[in-house]
Automatic annotation (TrEMBL):
Main location: membrane
Gene3D superfamilies: 2.60.120.230, Copper type II, ascorbate-dependent monooxygenase, N-terminal domain, TolB, C-terminal domain
Name this polypeptide is given: Peptidylglycine alpha-amidating monooxygenase
Positions with a binding annotation for Cu(2+): 41-42, 108, 163, 165, 235
Subcellular location: Cytoplasmic vesicle, Secretory vesicle membrane
Source organism (scientific name): Astatotilapia calliptera
Amino acid sequence: MSLFSLIFQSDTYLCMAFPVPTRQDAYIVDFIPLASMDTVHHMLLFGCQTPVSTNSFWDCGSVQGTCEDEAAIMYAWARNAPPTKLPKDVGFKVGRSSGMSYFVLQIHYGDISAFKGEQPFIAGIYLLMSVDTVILPGQRVTDADVACDYTSYPIYPFAFRTHTHRLGKVVSGYRIRDGKWTLIGRQSPQLPQAFYPANKQVTVKYGDTLAARCVFTGEGKTSKTYIGGTSDDEMCNFYIMYYMESRHAIPYMNCMEMGSEELFQHIPPEANVPINVSPSHMNSVMHLGQSTGTATSNINMKLFQVSAWPQSSLQLGQVSGLALDSDSNLVIFHRGDHHWGADSFNNQARYQQRSLGPIQQSAILVVDPSKGSILKASGRNMFFLPHGITADKENNYWVTDVALHQVLKVSSDGKDKTLMALGEAFIPGSDNNHFCQPTDVAVDTESGNIFVSDGYCNARIIKFSADGKYLSEWGSSDRRRRIPFHIPHSLVLLPDKKEICVADRENGRIQCFIAETGEFVKEIKKDEFGGEVFAISYSPTGDGLIFAVNGESLSRPVPIRGFVIDYSTKDILDTFSPNKKEFKMPHDIAETRDGSVFVGDASSKSVYKFTTEKLHHSVKKAGIEVQELEEMDAVVQTKVKQDTSKTAAIQEKQTVVQKTQPQLEADKERKSPAKLNKGERVLPVIITTLLLIPLVVVISIGVFISWRKKSMYENTHGNQHEVKSEPSSVRGILGKIRGKAVGSLNLGNFFPSHKGYSRQGFDQLSTEGSDQERNDEDSSDSENEEYSALPPPQSSS
C-alpha cells in the first residue's frame, strides 16, 4: 500500500478499511500490534457496517471520520503496548449477524519523517523463460537452457520461484561472473510454487550472465511435448524477485534466449540432479538442496568410464594425488621414476634412498579435464616420494612428501618455488613441528587454515593457521574416540557444512569433524568398503555427495571400486570401476564442477575419467549410430583395397563419418574397443589418391608411346603387320607398368627421378600410418622427455 500520495502534516490521522467475512460469524481472540511509538502515537480499531470512504486509505482526522453508521471501538493501542490476548473461549463477534462488515483502523502518526520522499529501493521481477524446448516421448532427460547477458544497473535478488508443469524435475537459476556459476535458487517445481528466499550472497551487475536450466523427463509420454499454456503443454520459468535503486528502477525484465551448449557445459552438476517428490510430500519445501518438513531428495547418479580419456598417453609414474585448481583443471601429482618399495624406509621411518636424488621429471602436471592434454608441468627436482596434493584459491599447490616428512606450499607459476615448508626435511617426528609420513593436506578457502593428515606413523590430524602456526590436533591421542585412526590417508573439506572428513584407510571408514573445533560429527562405514578406504572427495550437490575409493583387503576381499555416497543418509548411491581393466590401487579421487570424476591409480600409473549417467544417456542413441557408421567405415576401407575406381564414393562416406564423429566420440569409446580414429579413416583415402595419380600418369605415358610407335610402324611398313595388336616395345613398357604399378607401385622409386623430391617417407605409405615404422631420424623424444619416467640413476656405490 502506497502512502506517498498523502500530504502529511503533523498529527496526521490515517484510516483504512478492511472487509470482514459476512457469510458466517467470526470471532477476534487476539490483537497483535505491528507498530512503534517512534512513528505512531496511537491506533484505534473500529467495527462498523459502512466506512465513510471506499478508498484504500484516507485522512480521517478531518470531518470525514471513520464510519457512516455508528462506529464501535474494538481495540486501542499506544506507547509500545504489548499484544492483547482475550481469555479462553472469549472473542469479539464480527461478520454475518454482528452488524460489523468492516474494520476501520485509525492511526495517529506522531512522526511523519518516515513517509517523506520516495522509497530508496524498488522491487521488480526478472523472468527467465524457455519458449522453444521440445520434450521427446520416452526420453529420460531433456534440458531447457536459458541465458542472457545482464546489461542494466545492479539488482539484488532476494527471492526466487520455479514453474513447470508435470514433467519438470528440477529448475535452477544462476549468476555467471568471470566464468564462475553462483546459485541463486534451486527447487523442484512439483513442490509448492511460492517465492522462496534466494541466496543472499548474490548480486547481479552489468556484464554478468543470468542463466537457468529446467530438467524434464519424457518417460511415460507417447508424443512430443511443447512449451505452451495448456495443461498438456510444458513451461520452463525461473522468476527472480529483486530490488534496485529507485532512480534506476526497472519493474520487469525478461530473458528468452536459448543458452549455448558451450556455456552450459560448465553448469554445476547439481542442476542436473532431479529432486523426486512423492505425493505425500507435495506440501513440503526443499530449498537450495536442503529439505524442510518431510521432503526427501532422491539423487539418481550413475558413473561410466570415458575410455577415450586421455586422448594421448600422459606417461606417468605412480599417481599419488589428484586435485582441481581454481580454473577447474585437473592437477596430477606423480612419482616419476621413484617407487615406494619395501626398502624405501627403515624401521624408524627414515627414507633410505636419498642417493637417488629428487625426482627429475615434472611431478606436477596440470591437465585439461575434457581432453587430457597437458597444459603445464612443474615440480622438477623437488620431491622424493609425493603423496597428497591440493590447490588453494590462489592456485598454489599444497603437497605432502612421505620421504621428506614435510608439507610444502609450492608456486604454480612454473618456477618451482617453495613458498612455505612445514616439518623438517627427512626427519620424522611426532611433536608440533614434525610429521611422520604425512599423507594429505586441505586448505580452508575462507580462513586459510591448513589441515594435515599425519599419516602413516602418527595417525592424527593437525590444524595450522594460514601462516603455518600450530593450532590443534586430534586423532590417536583423542580419548573420546574409541578406535584411533589407522592411517588417515585422505582429507576433504566440506565448505557448505564447515566440516572436514578423513578417509581412515585401514579402519575402512570415513569420519567427519567440525573444522573449527575438531568435534566428531559422523562416521560412514560400509561392508562394501572391505575394510579399506583410500581416498575421498566431496560435492555439495543435493545435501552433499561423498566420492570414495576403496583398496585391496586381505581379510575381507571385495571388488576394488569407486563409491558415490549420500552424505546425509550415508547410503551408497552408485559404484563404478573401469570398463575393461580393474582398479589395482586407486590412490586418490577428484570431482569436477560438471560432475566428472577422476581416479588416480598408483599401481597402474593411470588416471581414469568417469562421467554421469546423464551424459551417458544423452549420447546413447548416437552410440547406436556410431556402431553402424563404424561398420560402414570398415566396408569403405575394404573397398579401398579392392576397387580403387570408387574413390569419390569412398570419400563421401568418409565425410559422413567425420561429420558425426565429434558428437559421438564419448559413447563410441565406451562401446567400441576397436575404434579407428579420424586420422586412420582418412589415411586410406589419401593413400589411394596418391597411388591413383602416378598410376594414371604412367599408364597415360605408356598409351601415348604405344600410339606413337604404332603410328610410326604403320607408316613404315604399311598394313603388313596389322594383325599385331601390341608392338614389342609397348608390351615391354606395359609389362613394366603392370609389374610395378599394378603389383606394388613404389612411389619412392618413382619420385626420385623428378627434381625436388626426396624418397624418404614414401615407401612407408603402404603401412597405413603405423607409428612403429617411422624413420628414426624423423622421430623426436623432446616431447616425451619432460614427462616420461627416466631409469633410476646408478648408485654411487
